[in-house]
Amino acid sequence: MHCASSHRINLCDCGLSAKPKIDIIAVVKDPKRAILCLATIGHKYKGEYNIPLHYGFNKRGDVEVNLHRYEENHPEIELNLLFRDYLRKTPEACNEYMDLKNRLLKDSASFEKNNSAFTGYTLGKGTFIRKTLKEAGFNRLRFLRCTDVIEWDAAKYYRQTYFFDRVTIADPYTWTFNHPNHAHFILYQGAEIIGYAHVPLWPENRAALRIIVVELAKRNQELGGQFLLLIEKWLKVQGYKSIHIESSPEALQFYKKHDYVAMPFCDPDGYEGHPNDVAIGKIL
């Protein structure tokens, strides 16, 4: 499986209470190859959850293990180790995290899932984790599927501010937030949300890019291009063969710079784009 290295994420040695499970990060050259191999030794594949290009497994028994496999240089590797090390050396943060977890465990809503793959317990830790990563100096670029309230609020803000306010209407497509054929991504720089993208997943291994936007203050730093490449990589790993865009004339040069060419859009849902938009695409 070309394993490069692995790290056990252990917070108990800083006095933090935790579940009786071992979390391990394994860094590999080709994480997808691990799925069948690990199944033969009792590890169940659990998928990405909200982290693109994350391969999660668990093994239950006398010793319960959560195994997280990432390709080399995936930002989640550094993020997890930095978070762990910061709590180990900062007792106040460790105690704050422990108090938060204990409060969440006393709340019955923490054990419920409301239109999410995660319980309230997991989602309730998001704000603390973002704050801790900022204090720890984490500054890598990463993208996630929208998950908690802050991320969904950011998605709504970007959609309304940069797109639907221009035509003075309320966003008519919020129904896609809970639709399995629509992926909504948030772009982080460190702990700060700086961008958003909406990717409809079409039949016949095609996908579209309806919206991609980076915060105005963060533009002209190649961040939009990096965001686009991350989305393309994720789609390719998922088995999609092409990505399609109806580009405004103003954005056309951006896409041409990233090798997009004239290509029919052919929306299977039948939505009509703006008459000035240009149909382009890319073979993945």
Keywords:
alpha+beta, disordered N terminus, 8 helices, 284 residues, Aminopeptidase, four-stranded antiparallel sheet, 27% strand, Beta Polymerase, domain 2, 30% helix, globular, five-stranded mixed sheet
Outline the structure in words.
The chain is α+β, with helices and mostly antiparallel strands and 284 residues long. The chain folds into 2 domains: 3-136, Beta Polymerase, domain 2 (2-Layer Sandwich), CATH 3.30.460.10; 141-283, Aminopeptidase (3-Layer(aba) Sandwich). 30% of the residues lie in helices and 27% in strands. The protein is built from 8 helices and 13 strands. The chain has helices spanning 34-39, 75-89, 91-105, 120-123, 126-136, 149-162, 223-237, 252-257; strands spanning 3-9, 21-28, 44-47, 54-59, 64-71, 141-145, 182-189, 192-200, 206-208, 211-214, 242-247, 261-262, 278-283. A 5-stranded mixed beta sheet has the order 1-2-5-4-3. It has a 4-stranded antiparallel beta sheet with strand order 6-7-8-10, with helices on both faces. β4 (54-59) and β5 form a beta hairpin. α2 (75-89) crosses α5 (126-136). It is globular.
Concise synopsis of the structure shown:
Helix content is 30%, strand content 27%.
What's the Cα radius of gyration? Answer: 20 Å
The portion of residues forming beta strands comes to 25-35%
Mean pLDDT: 90
Q: Between the first and last Cα atoms, what is the distance in angstroms?
A: 25 Å
Strand order of the largest sheet: 1-2-5-4-3
Count of individual beta strands: 13
What is the architecture of the largest domain at the second tier of CATH? 3-Layer(aba) Sandwich
CATH superfamily of the largest domain: Gcn5-related N-acetyltransferase (GNAT)
Low-confidence stretches: 1-5
Number of domains: 2
Output the structural class: alpha+beta
Main beta sheet: 5 strands, mixed
CATH class of the largest domain: Alpha Beta
CATH topology title of the largest domain? Aminopeptidase
Helix content range = 25-40%
| Shape, principal axes of CA atoms | globular
Question: What is the string of SSEs from the N terminus onward?
Answer: EEHEEEHHHHEHEEEEHEHEE
